[in-house]
Write a structure and sequence with these properties.
single chain, alpha/beta, Rossmann fold, 6-stranded parallel sheet
């Protein structure tokens, strides 16, 4: 599951609860079990976003069309309201096929122009909308993602060790979570690990760059896992020595938040949205491409137990500030503002567990 897919799934299930004063109707091109809401499935194998969905909107005439992690149709019969996650394709166009890049630029620029108001998941993404697309700052509301709440499963050491052996992991390792692509910069992480005797780099994420994947997979110091389940991802978080995350650009940075929640210290770069998520609970490296500096940061973390304890404690405390309930409430508030609908009095009851 990608970060944007996780965002949509977490938010959809909460919106009717946090905003019962609004009437919600959710659409998809295929069934999505476990969402916790009534889902209207409009089957169509191709052109769903640009043909089938607009026809439904033309019949229903909603007051607003909310795009959580997809696209705003070229013909949109309802006023659009979009959540912008990142503009990675503008910052790293070389990572995209020409046809995909052209479509993303057209669809995203058009959505930014059409939406009277919109949400960005970070201040960094808002800055990109303003600087790259000329969006007026007052049209953008920042509502950060969630995922830092709750108590993680401590797991069973013996069972976890057996599952790790199934992945070919039989010693201490650093973890990298994210798609295998140049923007995620896993080759710099590998370069750092190759300077550190006795450590493995474990990469969990879908493969989008085959050449990078070959380089990682042929290194004896790397285990390339590809996509993993949520349970496998959590296992890796709780048994790794650190998250090594030298990303060149992020719209939010969910792996940093997930690692902090699990009590896993993070080595990352101070770029784009990452300082918004990590704050002072992350050990930052100035240059994401400097494998030697990344290795030095890991060595410092491994050798300084007081530093490790401080980062773990600060990370857990900071992660707790980012919840999916708060994200859904913030999104609902932004939608009400767009519709000029006052927010109802908010109850004092705690968020529902999920």
């Amino acid at each position: 599951m990608t970060g944007t897919e996780r965002y949509a799934r977490e938010v959809i299930g909460r919106l009717p609860e946090v905003a019962p004063d609004l009437s919600w109707r959710f659409y998809a091109s295929r069934p999505a079990p476990g969402l916790g809401v009534d889902l209207t499935v409009l089957p169509l194998r191709r052109l769903w976003s640009q043909a089938r969905l607009p026809l439904e909107l033309a019949v229903r005439r909603p007051d607003l069309y909310l795009d959580l992690a997809h696209v705003v149709p070229a013909w949109c019969p309802a006023p659009p309201f979009k959540v912008f996650h990142d503009l990675a394709f503008e910052r790293f166009p070389e990572a995209y096929r020409p046809a995909d890049l052209a479509y993303l630029r057209w669809a995203t620029r058009r959505a930014a122009r059409l939406c009277q108001a919109m949400v960005a998941v970070s201040e960094a993404t808002k800055r990109d909308l303003v600087s790259l697309y000329g969006v007026e700052p007052e049209r953008v509301t920042v509502v950060q993602e969630g995922g830092g709440e709750g108590t993680p499963d401590p797991g069973d050491p013996a069972a976890d060790a057996a599952r790790l052996r199934g992945f070919g992991i039989d010693g201490p390792f650093l973890l990298n979570v994210g798609r295998i692509e140049p923007r995620k910069n896993q080759l710099a992480a590998l370069g750092a690990v190759e300077r550190l005797p006795g450590l493995l780099l474990v990469c969990a994420g879908a493969i989008h760059d085959e050449r990078m994947a070959v380089r990682l997979d042929t290194s004896p110091r790397c285990r390339l896992l590809g996509r993993v389940t949520d349970a496998e991802r959590d296992l890796l978080y709780r048994r790794a020595e650190a998250l090594l995350f030298p990303s060149l650009y992020e719209g939010f940075g969910l792996p940093v938040l997930e690692a902090m929640r699990q009590g896993l210290p993070v080595v990352a770069t101070r770029t784009s949205s990452l300082p918004e998520v990590g704050g002072e609970a992350v050990l930052y490296v100035p240059d994401a491409r400097d494998s030697a500096a990344l290795a030095e940061a890991v060595e410092r973390l491994r050798g300084d137990q007081a530093l490790r304890r401080r980062l773990v404690a600060a990370g857990r405390k900071r992660a707790a500030r980012f919840s999916w309930d708060a994200c859904a409430r913030g999104l609902a508030d932004a939608i009400r503002a767009r519709l000029s609908v006052p927010a109802p009095a908010r109850s004092a009851r705690p968020p529902s567990p999920r």
